[in-house]
What we know:
The protein is an alpha/beta fold. The chain has one domain: Metallo-dependent phosphatases (Purple Acid Phosphatase, chain A, domain 2, 4-Layer Sandwich), CATH 3.60.21.10. Helices cover about 25% and strands about 25% of the residues. The protein is built from seven helices and twelve strands. The protein has helices at about 20-30, 50-60, 80-85, 90-95, 130-140, 170-180, 280-285; strands at about 1-5, 35-40, 65-70, 100-105, 110, 145-150, 185-190, 195-200, 215, 235-240, 245-255, 260-270. Strands 3-2-1-10-11-12 form a six-stranded mixed β-sheet. A six-stranded mixed β-sheet has the order 4-5-6-7-9-8, covered by helices on one side. The longest helix has 14 residues, at about 20-30.
Amino acid sequence: xxxxxxxxxxxxxxxxxxxxxxxxxxxxxxxxxxxxxxxxxxxxxxxxxxxxxxxxxxxxxxxxxxxxxxxxxxxxxxxxxxxxxxxxxxxxxxxxxxxxxxxxxxxxxxxxxxxxxxxxxxxxxxxxxxxxxxxxxxxxxxxxxxxxxxxxxxxxxxxxxxxxxxxxxxxxxxxxxxxxxxxxxxxxxxxxxxxxxxxxxxxxxxxxxxxxxxxxxxxxxxxxxxxxxxxxxxxxxxxxxxxxxxxxxxxxxxxxxxxxxxxxxxxxxxxxxxxxxxxxxxxxxxxx
Length: 288
């Protein structure tokens, strides 16, 4: 089994919530996931002091493989010269040098794609053809049975309440490309409220035999939650076994100062059917 802790939208700066941040550190220390995924927006306004605080926080996380990707708030907005000529300078210095990356742990191949577009699409991002080629090449080397996972900050499915938050341009075509790559799971943030579902919920796709699990995290450590997660903080724990993927959505309970599970979602892997009792299934088929 592979366990991923998926958090997003930390937003170090004026909106950062230290109580939620400390609670997440405690969860990470106890759970000891195989991988920690942080899907963008480490800072509120891409300022040096915010990046310094974000870096110091990351250093307190358990020493396990980490997957990161920039968010739109990690690119300068009002400092136009910096946005045009050095948009990722601070991100690369304090968070990670690579903007697109790939790691493999036993049982999973994870590709992180930088969906920010500082020159043309500040809010809802872009995925470019060369990035799809990068992902295709990475997944081509995945051993059989590995879960193929994509991480991007911006979302490919609409917000669960359909209030604002337009999806990324060409989202449907990109999901079709992911399907061709055999991607099982897409992790993201940006919406500041969680969504856990299947790509077929919002887009039938060119091939309808199998959807892609969509897992959006709310803002994990800021006071910028929206809609049904207004003033709330959340993250997801993803457990990938041979036959199923289970996602547990955690919400921060301020009264007790810790994260607690709110919902669990179980999805079959492989051909899209639960096969826990194969012998029983064979008996049913024989009786028909």
